[in-house]
Design goal:
Elements (H helix, E strand, L loop, with lengths): L7 E5 L5 H7 L3 H7 L9 H12 L5 E7 L2 E11 L2 E8 L8 H12 L5 E6 L3 H9 L3 E10 L4 E10 L2
């Protein structure tokens, strides 16, 4: 069976997107791979309040990923401890279809902050491949407490300079 080609588009995230994006991050397998999730990620009211506030933050570039006419994920640049970092989340139903890679490539044309860092759990091979396909280079490792796993794990740190 031939892979379906998706027409990927990014647009600024709006409050109305948050309900759909909230549902994506409830998946247990996705949470395990993301590892570093928020303390109350299953609390819809807290999620909506938090991300509504973040949408108004001018230092954050929040984009919703659309495949065809369907919201399939989100991607954002944010500042943490003075560094610009990237985060993205794809609906599990759309994993392995090149959507994250294509969305990140598109995002990097509108978000020009460099250097840009990405952090990924040591065993999240899919996300590691996405970062590498988009020019990010692994520059180190760190350890941190992964709420989704309730244990300390290793994470890989990636950097994009160009």
């Amino acid at each position: 069976m031939k892979d379906i080609q998706y027409d990927i588009k990014l647009r600024p995230t709006v409050v109305d997107d948050l309900e759909t994006l909230f549902q994506f991050q409830l998946d247990d397998e996705a949470n395990h791979l993301a590892a570093f999730t928020s303390k109350d990620s299953a609390n819809k009211k807290a999620y909506i309040a938090k991300f509504t506030k973040l949408l108004a933050d001018p230092t954050i570039n929040n984009q919703t990923i659309i495949a065809g006419t369907v919201i399939v994920g989100s991607i954002a640049k944010f500042i943490m401890e003075g560094d610009a970092e990237i985060t993205y989340w794809i609906d599990k139903n759309f994993w392995g279809k090149g959507i994250a890679t294509n969305a990140l490539k598109d995002f990097l044309t509108i978000e020009t902050t460099r250097p840009l860092f990405g952090r990924v759990a040591f065993d999240n091979l899919g996300s590691q491949k996405v970062l590498e396909k988009c020019g990010f280079v692994k520059i180190g490792t760190d350890k941190g407490f992964a709420l989704a796993r309730q244990t300390e794990i290793e994470e890989f740190i990636y950097r994009l300079d160009d």
